[in-house]
Write a structure and sequence with these properties.
Largest sheet: 6 strands, parallel
Helix content: 40-55%
Structural class: alpha/beta
Number of strands: 6
Strand order of the largest sheet: 3-2-1-4-5-6
Order of helices and strands: EHHHHHEHEHHEHEHEH
Radius of gyration: 18 Å
Shape: elongated
Oligomer: single chain
Amino acid sequence: MLGLPDDVTALLFDLDGVLTDTAAVHDKAWTSAFDSYLREHAERTGAPFRPFDPVEDYRTFVDGKPRADGVRDFLASRGITLPEGSPDDPGDQAYEDTTVAGLGNRKNADLLRRIASDGVEVYEGSRRYLRAARDAGLRRAVVSSSANTRQVLEVTGLAELVEARVDGVTLRQEGLRGKPAPDSFLAGARALGVDPAHAAVFEDALAGVQAGRAGGFRAVVGVDRVGQADGLREHGATVVVTDLAQLLEGDA
């Protein structure tokens, strides 16, 4: 059904890069936040300034992960360790006071400004697929590491097409590990009342497909928006498409 095994009764969708094109907006916000910190770090330490790579660094260290994990993992790749801080740390901290949480909040504030000014684009193939899944009686949830998932679903009109949401807020409240751990997808399956063996995961991030495989889901659909089909398969995708409409058209 809908390009999936017949025994699949529930669908768990990542948001950024699968349903919406907010991945590009996230990338710009991360680039701005990291480069501003790295530039001052270079000035303070005398180290050469090497900017955040919005393709390789984003894909390797940030994509699909909770915000704090992305900050911590990327800075570790540059040999930088910051104190964790607290969730309400301001994003405009001075260099010497910067924390993991504060730098993440700087990125998020920039992200929200970009969403407010530019809006959020929905992949039309994904909207069609969600509608087809609803009409076929399949259960549907969004599982995202983003703390802004509710706002994005509402502003795009996708909220009416999903029944449950597990997001960055849920992860923090329930103490769940972020992707590549399977916790968030397993929570999504529980929210829909289904066993992972009867659910499919839809992901564009390597960490996300790895989480789907680790959770024992019946199918893991890799959505290749950036030319990483081989990587998606290597990390656990059982099928790879460039757009969810391919599953409707039998082209997967």
